[in-house]
Design brief:
- There is one protein chain.
- By secondary structure, the chain is mainly α.
- It is built from 20 helices and no strands.
- It has helices at 2-9, 13-42, 47-75, 77-95, 101-120, 122-129, 135-159, 161-168, 175-191, 193-198, 201-204, 209-217, 221-245, 252-258, 263-281, 284-302, 305-310, 317-345, 348-380, 384-405.
- The protein starts with a helix and ends in a 16-residue tail after the last helix.
């Protein structure tokens, strides 16, 4: 534990400030993750519109991610973080008060652009500004803080409608309490701007010195060819994963709500799942070092699939909660392992493009899956196709990872990833 704390304390000041920024921005997102779909249901929208909203949101994220690598390489992370977060705050605030279908879909696009920056700048920032030997620890800590803040945000989102409803003289599970709970979530994201403004090195320097050293390595044809293969595999595994997860992710809270679970209990389920994801994500690097990438990624990525398939036979709130919880744990543990491993294999200038394209493939796949799944659920009233999609596409994603990266270690010889520092 002392060694772990020393590694955290040795991180750059701006990296620690970035962790605080991520904490508050994800608190706000945690509130939205729990409440917004329930808010849409309160406004009279069904699963088909929720699927369309999520599709517009994630397509916008995907389009933004296509250009994110260029923006990061051109302007650096700091200005991208500031501009993207401010845009997200404005769009999210408007989302709380405009209720027509067209304004909601337009704002879904705008919030998607801001979310793309908030969620997808993290790993390129961590990998670039963290010493190589501390990158897995920093990546796991960042993922853990994200899970913790989303957990607390979900807990806050589940608790606030009741006191707000009493103040307004309305039922807790109605539109106005939900709306002002969402406004509270926006305020939490506003607080996250403060640590961004306090950053110094990353504000003055667009990139770490290693970025410019690694740029010269891309002259090698062999390095370029291998980098293209690595990026292609990262994009493909992200697409498969999104097609599986996107079929069910937007509907967990709606599914539980339809089973008669109140918003406060849904918030507790989301919060406990976030707590488990937070604690277990810190074990990701140790699991990776102990068992290697193949066993670690296969185990972590697939741990939630049996529970989703079990829902085909036992569609109960308990099994839904287990499916959601293990899915949260899977994402929190696997993403930092995957990012640190693949990031170490890529030259620095290719890294931002790789994570941008990976995020784009994730969001496009998620949008297609959410839209199709929402339509199927609204038309048939059955979630069974969504559960089956989770099993098929998550398995394909793991196979792509194992085939392309599983046999390769974290380090690459000179000419590959950024210089070890």
């Amino acid at each position: 534990m002392r060694g772990y704390l020393r590694r955290v304390a040795s991180l750059e000041r701006d990296v620690r400030l970035f962790m605080v920024y991520s904490l508050f921005s994800n608190l706000g997102m945690g509130v939205f993750a729990l409440i917004f779909n329930l808010y849409l249901v309160g406004l009279g929208y069904n699963e088909a519109f929720i699927g369309a909203f999520n599709a517009a949101y994630t397509v916008a994220m995907g389009l933004a991610c296509l250009g994110l690598g260029f923006l990061l390489n051109r302007y650096g992370a700091w200005i991208c973080i500031l501009a993207g977060t401010l845009e997200f705050i404005v769009a999210s605030f408007l989302l709380c008060f405009l209720t027509g279908p067209l304004p909601l879909l337009v704002l879904a696009v705008l919030t998607g652009v801001g979310t793309a920056v908030i969620q997808n700048v993290q790993m390129p920032f961590i990998i670039e500004w963290t010493p190589r030997e501390h990158t897995p620890t920093a990546a796991a800590l960042a993922s853990s803080l994200n899970a913790a803040s989303i957990m607390v945000g979900s807990l806050v989102g589940g608790m606030l409608p009741r006191p707000i409803g009493r103040l307004l003289g309305e039922m807790a599970e109605s539109v106005e309490p939900y709306r002002w709970t969402l406004v509270a979530g926006v305020f939490l994201t506003v607080v996250g701007i403060i640590p961004v403004l306090l950053m110094q090195t990353t504000r003055r320097q667009r990139h770490h010195a290693d970025f410019h050293v690694a740029r010269t390595q891309l002259v090698s044809t062999g390095v370029r060819r291998q980098a293209r293969r690595d990026v292609g595999a990262l994009v493909l595994l992200g697409l498969f994963l999104a097609l599986g997860v996107g079929a069910i992710e937007p509907f967990y809270n709606v599914l539980l709500d339809g089973m008669g679970v109140p918003a406060s209990r849904i918030g507790l389920i989301f919060a406990l799942s976030g707590l488990a994801a937070t604690l277990l994500s810190l074990a990701g690097p140790a699991l990776f070092r102990r068992f290697g990438p193949v066993v670690a990624q296969t185990t972590v990525r697939m741990c939630h699939v049996p529970f989703h398939l079990l829902l085909l036979v036992f569609p109960t709130p308990l099994v839904v909660s287990l499916a959601y919880g293990t899915r949260r744990i899977s994402g929190s543990m696997a993403w930092p392992i995957e990012s640190a491993h693949v990031g170490s294999l890529l030259p620095a200038p290719a890294r931002a493009h790789a994570f941008g394209l990976r995020s784009a493939s994730w969001n496009f796949g998620f949008a297609v899956a959410a839209l199709a799944s929402g339509w199927v659920i609204a038309t048939t009233g059955s979630y069974a196709p969504a559960y089956i999609a989770v099993g098929i596409f998550c398995t394909l994603s793991v196979l792509v990872y194992v085939v392309n990266y599983g046999w390769r270690g974290v380090e690459r010889t000179a000419g590959g990833a950024a210089v070890v520092r």
